[in-house]
Amino acid sequence: MAAGIFSTTRVAGEGLAIAVVSVLLTLFIQFHLPENISAQRVATAQHLAMGDMAAVAGHVPYIHVDALVHVYGDAFRWLIYCLILVTVFSAIVVGWLLDGTAEAGAG
Known about the structure:
Layout lengths: L1 H31 L8 H9 L3 H7 L5 H42 L1
Helix pairs in contact: 1-2, 1-4, 2-3
């Protein structure tokens, strides 16, 4: 039963993580898009986050593909920075919790 609960929470956690990462990538793309596409900003960011360049070209045909690739690269870089921070923070918390458990068990 414990294995089933663990598997269920693991899969649910992975699904939640994918959703959060997708939202963050879309937000970072929105922040890096040029100011002159205010009306199509959300739709453009969503399509660019999913890699649908044909739809992006339909929304903003006046922006060159190289510029959009650069926007995606910048947004992805910021996403990686955020994920690095989450990983380091998680490692510190787990290390702290394990260190406290070892001291409590020894005493």
